[in-house]
Amino acid sequence: MKKIGLLIATLAFFSAAFAQDIVVQGKVEFNFSKHCSIRAGEDYSTYLTSDADAVNIDIKKLQKNRYWTVAVSKRDIDWDNQVKIFVCRSSNGNANGKRRVWGGTNFQRVHNLPCYFFGGFEKVSNIDIQYQLRGLSTSIESKDYYTNIVYTLYED
Amino acid sequence: MNWKAKYPRTLLKISKLAMVLSLSTLTLSEASAQRYWDDDDHPLSLSMPQISLITIMPNNSAITLELGVPTIPGGPPRDDLKESKDSSKWLNYTCSRRGRRSRRSVDVQITQGSIPTGLKISVTASRVQPYGKGQRGRPTSKVWLSTNSQTLIQDIGNCNTGRGRQRGHRLTYHLQLDDFNQLDAEPTSSITVTYTISDQ
Hints:
B: 7-stranded antiparallel β-sheet, 16% helix, 39% strand, rod-shaped
């Protein structure tokens, strides 16, 4: 029975060691008063856009010759859905000088259900992500709103 | 005597092998199944500021209200002429504040000068024009201007009226004779009218 236990532990270790991994670094804070000023009677007319490298994504621990895709969604904590979140990929990341990421370079809306965002091949690090908020209005209650942006990596 | 009784050690080995194979298959399939995806997240926050902005459009230049000459000798001056009324100003505002149910109002008062004795001036706000967005305010009835602050528009929620002429509420001023016997014959007099948006 010891042999059986050892075998299971070994298999579990190797499966974990070769499992793909997505790591998201950064947090995004939009402070409206810093970005925009309006006059009496007016509504907010502009979009709020984050820095181009607001968030970085690393794709790692992939097996060789593996394609993958990343989906994006949001998990609301306290969010007004009049405010629409858009996301785009603003860099190709680092893959030993090779271009191994495609798609996601146009702003697309982030929904509560995962939607395809971009795809790639093997390991890539430091993929920059940019955000944009649309639908901002003074008709939205003044307070702080929170949500989580979720990135899901699927190995093809 | 059947083979199970004849070869007990062989049976044990077969059982062990079967167990190892089934566990290995289970572990491998589970490992590969659960590791085909992974996720990670980060927080995103938005801070919406409190805003209260109000303006008179198209500008805050002075308006002139006049009484007409009497129609009969010794009679009172006329206050039903178009010169005694003005509807050229519009009130625009933008408001956003904490709490869905909180409301603001616009108050009006004379902050400089005084209305000549024997005369009175009213101001009326029209219903809001169909521009802008959100919970825009509701006008009260006619307000007689005085140095006391009086509510002209109430129930203002998170909103904006649009900016410019034909946006927000039209303001109509009307100069009227209050008491002919107390009329003070000043040729001209000026007052400053101030509108304030604040918590209701």
